């Protein structure tokens, strides 16, 4: 279950404190240009240590193309991208060997697998998202050729919606050894109509799957989102004219199929669970413990979800685009 | 893309005004009891014409088991359930042959496939959900044996949260030829810990996929949902003690794996798009038109989403349960 | 595991003595013509009781289209085809309730599922192939529009390769209460180059999978087949000239990709296991028993494998054709 | 289409003359021991340059575990195994940039993808099988704990069946600049009954798929194989007694389900297509050319198919074993 997509199939691997993190992309169309530089540019946006709003942890995150590209172009064979893990300080996590962190997957992994790599979350670490961003970068190279542009922003934090309010909220949380949640908004422009397949391959369902699968996301909204429940049909319906749609409550997707309007998505993200504030928890033996999580953590993971959400959107659209190619209305007997 | 699930694989078929609607369930475990009566009981909850809050349209929705059951028990072979379409009045839809209804999938289907069954939405009709409810009923027979209980309620309509307010809002909309949106809340009790698979088979992601794939759903929230974005980590983290979790902001799922607490999900549903209020639209040739949708429509589809959402939850849990069986911590060399 | 194909996804259902046998085709392209008559014509070729070489058992095998077709054309939605079971004499099988037939799946099903429909093989019956033939008929309607023609013949029986020898061998076996094996040869003409995907979606591998999955098939050969092992490279290589290939030892597939030459496949099929000759076996309790299988059985199932093998070939090619559409060499940035 | 398996999902990547070859295994059960040494031991059996019967080409083939293993045990997370490509002499292939080799996938790849890595076959090279052997080694660690043992031998070459005859045939072909075909026989002992799923997940069909997907394989036989077609039912049926089966014409699989007897498989493999003997071919422009393939090639690839066929068998059995876990006859309501 580490593969995303049916056509543009992305398989990620790697634990946060293992040898390397990476991804294999199967089903990548042949003949388009990608380069280490382009992929690196997207990874650099995700990389921590770039401002005071994020963890000061340094991760080099240098990507290497191992296969699937020849003389700068994709071969149609699997593209493997590798990122060596370099700045891992496992000793930071020695204390966590026996204690479950609240709000983390520690306990779930342990109960499910009976074994876990306790160092930095192992497979459940946010570090795994570097591989998603790398894969998303490949998809974006392709999508941009088709005129499809994906933009994500951090639109609110702890209820604040201005840049100043957002920064203050994050710095306050950091200074107090606490953390804050936020909202990420995505807009896709240039998406052609027709993407998405009824009834269990709907584009909005695929987006919800992709976004809710990002660590910390607790809500996914498309277009009108939660507000739809308080509206009337005459308000909500997007009427049409020969000039186009007259509104976009649908968020660019109707009946699971893209309409050609902008795709509008919002994600609500919980506060970073790793906080210094002491919390009640238990250890492997089930005994009560108190934990104060040390280490270099983001005070607001929503900041760093932005490039990951963009990448996941790229993977969904790429997959849907290839799927759509199978359907060709002019394939019948008649001209 | 008419199949849901990897292990308990549910494929639905049928257009709203075709011969029949149905479902094939592949991967159904052998040896447990199901009966036409049990499945019919769930279908009857979904059936319209039962109160003044829903469409007066009559649908018999009598289910027939065609395969996979022998002497009252599942064989482990595909279970096919069939519902004949009986009360279809296609002439109601003659007008819709040439005009796209706002808020519906009409235009998307036409642009994508170049052909559509215009009668009552064809494949995109809510009628398809009868097949999902039938499949969900089979899953629920199994899950209830495991102590897993799914409950859904209509928790708000047009902002109203009391039974009286909800009913008034729906009747007002109906009388005005308009419609209203609503919220459906689901609670799963008795779910064992360990369901769901990192990183692209997370239980919450699967639930989001299943729920956003129900017609009209515009937002999916798990646990704290959209509120998570305005909280701090010290508020949001579910602390643990030897007696259990001290809160449930996670909504029963952490790191994509069920914790054993109740699973909490909320869906925001748009107002029924079929309304009598005249609306701007276009026809097949792209000309401006005005449409007022006739016929017997639900003033609030959220009412009827309840059993469908329960069914989809059952399918997700059933699939995750079979998946979990592949992972057995004691499968190694050591005792 | 009752679904075949990744793109043209065919799910069969039904036990031999249940209510009905059928198939759902998901991923069927929209807009091409199919009719009950066309499908019925293929089913009639498979139907028993048509000559003295096959079982005198009568099966009406009337097919009904339940969904996915509107005004004679496919909608792009799932096509469900249903065949009611009519001529089932379950009492023939009462004796088999407790005894496993040699050469049959009886014991395997029982040990695996702990339950089985003992009447006529249930799900493992050759009757399930009616659903495959029906699905194959839909694929063939499409493939024939593309100029792809599939032809199967019974090329040998019990070592005999002339029509006269074949008929004598079958009648002799029938008269002796025994049965005989045979070989079915398939030729596909008009197949375009480029079908099949390295490294785990090779066209020859898909064909082998499809053919070995037909009951009774014990060997699958492509092109030179078993003879390849006794040849030299200079004999076996298919040299090329500007006029085309100079031979076809490859059987139309090289490196897993179709070359555009005829696809050549041979299947070796075991003798019908249901014979009147007394045989040693065991019962459910594991006790020694002797069995003489009564009923109306084919003396040579290879005869009836012909239309089934053609149908499976159609499903493989259809699936590969849709897959190939995702790969378009001109999709990059350059003209 | 570079992924094999539904449960133990193996994705290979890498071109023969790219940076590296590797594999990601998703769905690997947690908690069992694997080590670089164990995997290396299997790779060493496949490695060329070990006798005069194979290519003198040197490939170090040193495997590295990048993820999924912690303190010597599998974590249940994806296992990535990497083999750096070291001994690649691309200049050997400069001549092949414009000319298609007979019997190779060169032309098919070019026509399908419009681009190819011409150096040494790129993705279609036998080198890709190193990744399969590495993945198979992981599966075999697990299967051996379950008592399942896989053995492959080269049983004939150019019609010769004795060790002496086989060696002579290979050396003769090598000395003449030609090549020879051969047969590989596999026996699996200790396989439990119940593996394999009707009707499209049959164990023999999965084996045929896996084996026909190995480069050069032209025929796959199970048990009696091609001989079945010349037998009678009374000869072919494997009768049963309380002591067990009285013969094994089935080759250990009946109705697609393993019987518990030895699984018997034979592969017929074509002669190596790379030969020095001059052959007619065409170039990219479609012009007639004559080619004599230089380089260090195996005179009989069947020799080196042995470890690959063993590995593919391990992958099939591992996948089927995990699949079987979903079916548990005692899962119903009754004790």
At the first level of CATH, the class of chain A is: Alpha Beta
Large-scale geometry of chain A: globular
In this structure, how is the largest beta sheet of chain A organized?
5 strands, antiparallel
Secondary structure category of chain A = alpha+beta
Could you give the distance between the termini of chain A? 43 Å
The oligomerization state is homotetramer
Radius of gyration of chain A over all CA atoms, rounded: 21 Å
Number of strands of chain A: 17
What's the architecture of chain A in CATH terms? 4-Layer Sandwich
CATH superfamily of chain A: Chorismate synthase AroC
Helix count of chain A equals 7
Measured as a percent range, the helix fraction of chain A is 25-40%
Mean pLDDT of chain A equals 91
Number of domains of chain A: 1
What pattern of helices and strands is seen along the backbone of chain A? EEEHEEEEHHEHEHEHEEEEEEEH
Describe the structure.
The structure is a homotetramer of 335-residue chains. Chain A is an alpha+beta fold and 335 residues long. The first copy, chain A, has a single domain (3-327), classed as Chorismate synthase, AroC fold (4-Layer Sandwich). Chain A has helices at 36-46, 106-113, 129-145, 163-175, 203-212, 233-236, 301-324; strands at residues 3-4, 9-13, 20-26, 63-67, 69-70, 73-74, 79-84, 149-157, 182-189, 217-222, 240-241, 244-245, 253-254, 257-258, 263-269, 279-282, 288-291. In chain A, strand 13 (253-254) and strand 14 form a beta hairpin. At the A-B interface, strand 1, helix 2, helix 5, strand 10 and helix 6 of A face strand 1, helix 2, helix 5, strand 10 and helix 6 of B. Strand 10 of chain A pairs antiparallel with strand 10 (217-222) of chain B, so a sheet runs across the interface.
């Amino acid at each position: 279950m580490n593969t995303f997509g049916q056509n543009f199939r992305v398989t990620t691997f790697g634990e946060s404190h293992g040898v390397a993190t990476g991804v294999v992309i199967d089903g990548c169309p042949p003949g388009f240009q990608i380069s280490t530089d382009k992929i690196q540019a997207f990874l650099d946006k995700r990389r921590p240590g770039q401002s005071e709003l994020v963890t000061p942890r340094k991760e080099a995150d240098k990507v290497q193309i191992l296969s699937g590209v020849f003389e700068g172009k994709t071969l149609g064979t699997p593209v493997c991208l590798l990122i060596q893990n370099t700045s891992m300080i496992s000793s930071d996590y020695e204390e966590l060997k026996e204690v479950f962190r609240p709000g983390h997957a520690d306990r779930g992994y342990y109960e499910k697998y009976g074994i876990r790599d306790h160092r930095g979350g192992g497979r459940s670490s946010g570090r795994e998202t570097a591989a998603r961003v790398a894969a998303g970068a490949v998809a974006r190279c392709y999508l941009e050729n088709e005129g499809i542009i994906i933009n994500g922003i951090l639109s609110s934090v702890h209820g604040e919606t201005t840049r100043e309010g957002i920064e203050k909220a994050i710095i306050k949380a950091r200074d107090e050894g606490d953390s804050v949640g936020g909202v990420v908004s995505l807009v896709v422009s240039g998406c052609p109509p027709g993407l998405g397949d009824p009834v269990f391959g709907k584009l909005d369902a695929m987006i919800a799957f992709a976004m809710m699968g990002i660590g910390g996301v607790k809500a996914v909204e498309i277009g009108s989102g939660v507000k739809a429940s308080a509206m009337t049909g005459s308000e909500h319906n997007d009427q049409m004219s020969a000039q186009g749609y007259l509104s976009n409550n649908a968020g660019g997707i109707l009946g699971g199929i893209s309409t050609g309007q902008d795709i509008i998505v919002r994600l609500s993200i919980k506060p970073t669970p790793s906080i210094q504030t002491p919390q009640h928890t238990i250890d492997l033996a089930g005994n009560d413990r108190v934990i104060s999580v040390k280490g270099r953590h983001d005070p607001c993971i929503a900041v760093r979800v932005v490039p990951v959400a963009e990448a996941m959107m790229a993977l969904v659209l790429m997959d849907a685009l290839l799927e759509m190619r199978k359907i060709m209305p002019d394939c019948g007997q008649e001209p």
